[in-house]
Amino acid sequence: MFDLVRPLGAKRGEVEVNSLGMIPLSRKIGKVDGATDPLGLVRRSLDRQGVEWAPEIEYVLMDGLVVEFELPMETLSVEAYKVAAQATFGTLFHYRFIHGAQVIAQYNTDPRFWTTAWLDLAGVRFDKR
Questions:
Q1: Helix (H, G, I), strand (E, B) or coil at 44
Q2: How far is CA 11 from the centre of its chain?
Q3: Residue 66 and residue 7: Cα distance in Å, rounded?
Q4: What does the angle CA 59 – CA 64 – CA 67 come to, to the nearest 5 degrees?
Q5: How many other β-carbons are positioned within 10 Å of the β-carbon of residue 68?
Q6: 110 or 59, which is more confident
Q7: Domains in the chain: how many in total?
Q8: What is the mean pLDDT of residues 19-36?
Q9: Cys bridge to 68: 44, 58, 95, 115, which one at CB 3.0-4.6 A?
Q10: What is the distance, to the nearest Å, from the Cα of residue 104 to the centroid of all Cα atoms in its chain?
């Protein structure tokens, strides 16, 4: 699963507080996987077989510049600290094309290490909808 910090082109002062949640349907025990995975797609911590959730707050500092702080958790255990920043660079073709970038830094608590990712973002609107 992946989501943008805010939509590209977000306006100054916008604030969003939300949480992503996943409830396990299987009781398989996961193991720590040492694979490189900057987007957080591979489990890095021991699976306690609990509810996984990630409360976050997003704030637009100025038009097109957004920051986010997130706490990926399992049940009541904090598994990581995640910060992200997203910038919109501009639009073309009467706002039908938009371009931006995002950087994500995450510190995993167990095992203790940092992961970072840089994303180049582009969107195209084909019609009014």
A1: coil
A2: 19
A3: 9
A4: 30
A5: 20
A6: 59
A7: 1
A8: 62
A9: 58
A10: 7
